[in-house]
Amino acid sequence: MHLRYLHLPGLTPLLHTARIQSYLLSLHLAHKRAPSLSHSPPLPTLLTFQTPPTYTTGRRDLKTLTPSQIDHLRFGGRAEFHEALRGGQTTYHGPNQLTAYLICDLRSHGLSSRAYVELLENAVICTLAHFGVTGCRDGVNPGVWTKGGEKIASVGVHLRRYISSCGVGINVGKEVLPWFERIVMCGLVGKRATSMESEIGEKGIGVEEVGRGLAGCVAGALAGVEGKVEVVGEEVVMGK
Fold first, then answer.
1. How many CA atoms lie less than 13 Å away from 17 in the CB half-sphere?
2. What is the CB neighbour count within 10 angstroms for residue 85?
3. Which long-range contacts (CB under 8 A, 24 or more apart) does 10-13 make?
4. Is the pLDDT reported for residue 70 higher than 90?
5. Which amino acids are annotated catalytic?
6. 30, 66, 210, 219: least buried by Cβ within 10 Å?
């Protein structure tokens, strides 16, 4: 078994990435329903990308937002707003942030839901270390934090019959930070966001390079994958 890795170049609308994720999720669910009809189960796939400025909120919290709050998030047309499959509250995705969706069958890798979230957090911590950034879990709130208590990566997952979707958002460039100041990040009052560039005091960290690092860390952590990564194009993932 190996991890398939697809990175979408440039800025990709969130709805396009959602269609790719939905297709991959459907393959896994179809195999669960009728495993005898397929030769082998679908491979775990990591999808990474950057979006235009976009705010998302989890399904349970969408109904708590008023029209004026949603208008605030849309920021006069400068940002999109979408409901997400994941749990959790409002967060931001945009340029100079790596968003990553991991679609896999947790049971194929011997993972519980809690262990899966820890795997994602540890993979982010592993990735940050490659760039000289120290990240950690705070033991209370999900995501990856710095020693100074600032959030550098968000984690939000959705599980259906043990098939995962959604994943993580890693703040790479400083440009993402003002967008977080417009919200109570993930509902955590008083918490601030930071970025990889802010932590090391340098600019020019490539989002695609961070994506490759994350793919390696995820592949190294998933049981049965043993660090093997296959870089693929969108046409391969979508079966075209």
1. 31
2. 19
3. 10/50, 11/50, 11/51, 11/52, 11/95, 12/49, 12/50, 12/51, 13/51, 13/52, 13/80
4. no
5. 186
6. 66
User: How far is the C-alpha of 123 from the C-alpha of 218, rounded, in Å?
Assistant: 5
pLDDT at 106 over 80: yes
What are the CA-CA distances from residue 64 to residues 31, 58, 70, 116 (Å)? 36, 11, 10, 28
Question: What is the strand order of the sheet 151-160 is part of?
Answer: 144-145, 151-160, 163-171, 97-103, 45-50, 3-11, 229-231
DSSP 83-101: EESS-SS-EEE-TTEEEEE
- Least confident range from 31-40, 111-120, 161-170: namely 31-40
pTM: 0.91
Q: What single-letter DSSP state applies at residue 193?
A: B
Phi, psi angles (nearest 5°) of residue 4 = -85, 135
At residue 152, φ and ψ (nearest 5 deg) are -110, -15
CA distance 27 to 43: 10
Distance CA 211, CA 97 (A): 10
Q: What amino acid occupies position 160?
A: R
